[in-house]
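Feature request disguised as a bug report, sorry. It would help if multi-protein outputs had a clear separator. Right now it looks like this:
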Amino acid sequence: MSRDPSSLRPVSAKPEVILASSSVNRRELLGRLIDGFRVCEPVGGEPLLFGETGRERALRLSFFKAESVKAAYPSHLIIGSDQVAECEGRLLHKPGTSEQARADLAWSSGRSIHFWTGLVLLDTRTGSESTMVDHTRVWMRTLSAEEIDRYLEADQPWSCAASFRAESRGPALWRGLLTRDPTALVGLPLIRLAHFLRQAGYPVP
C-alpha cells in the first residue's frame, strides 16, 4: 500500500507570521524580533468612526488590518497594529503635507500628546485573539516657528502621526517622555508582541 508523499513531510510546530501592514517602520521593528515573516498590505481603506477616543480607534483599526487578510492565511499568526496620536482631545493624523505638519506642531507646541498604539495577534489555527493598547505620553517643548521649519526640512515627517519621527530627530522637540515600551512610539510594541508570540508557540528569541 503506497502512502501519499505529502503525509511523509515533517510538520513544523512553528506557524508562519504575517504582518498586516504597509508601514516600513513596523516591518523594520518586527525584523528586530523575528526572521522570515511575510508582509501583507491590509485589504480596503481604514474606516473612520466619529466619536471614538484615540484608544478605541487604535484598537479597532488594529483589528481591521488583521481581520482584512485572515481569509488568505488560515493557519498563521497575523499581526495588526495601528497608532493614534491625541492632543487635548484632538486626533493628530498623518499630515501628508508640510502645511498640515506645520499646523500640527504649532498646535501641540507646549502641550502633551498621548500616543495609543494598538496591537492584535490573530491565531487563525485556533481562532484565538491577543490584544492590547500601549499608552505613551510625550511632552512637547514650546517651539518657535523657526524651530518647526528647521525640523520639518530635516525630517519631512509627512507620514507620521503628530508630525514627527520618533526614530529620527523628533526627540529634539520633546521635553519629556513616559512609556513602558519605546518601540511602541515608533509603531509596534515589541515587548508585548514577543509575549503574545511566545504564548502562541512561536519561539522568541
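(second protein starts here, but nothing in the output says so)
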Amino acid sequence: MKSHTEYLAMNVPARRGFVNITGQVAAAVKASGVQEGLVLVNAMHITASVFINDEEPGLHHDYDVWLEQLAPHAPTSQYRHNDTGEDNADAHLKRQVMGREVVVAITRGALDFGPWEQIFYGEFDGHRRKRVLVKVIGE
C-alpha cells in the first residue's frame, strides 16, 4: 500500500470565506501515484472546515448567511468561550456544523465524485495562516 501526505497552506484574508480546493487535492492524488484508494482531507484548525458540495456562488452566500444566523459573531459577549479573551466562539460552532473532514474514493487515479461535487475549505476565523491535511492511501 502507498501513502502520500501534503499540507495545503490556507490564508483567507476575511473573517469568513469558502475556497475550492478540489484542484489541489486532485494534484496530490496524482502525485501519490495511487490508482485505487482513498483521500482524507482534513482542516487542521478548530475554526475551519472541509466539506463537499456544489461550486455555486449563491449556495456559498446561503451558507454564510445561514451560519451567521445559527451562530452570530456579535455580540461576542454572548459566548462563554470568549471570556478567555478570544472573540471566535462563533467560529468553533460554525466549524462543528460544517464538519472537520471529508474522505473521497480514488478510482483509476482520480477523485471519484458524484455530479457537481467539489471539495471546499471553510474559514470562520480568518486573517491568519492555517493548514489542510491531504492524506492519500491505496494501491
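Even a blank line would do. Unrelated, but nice: The chain has three helices and eight strands.
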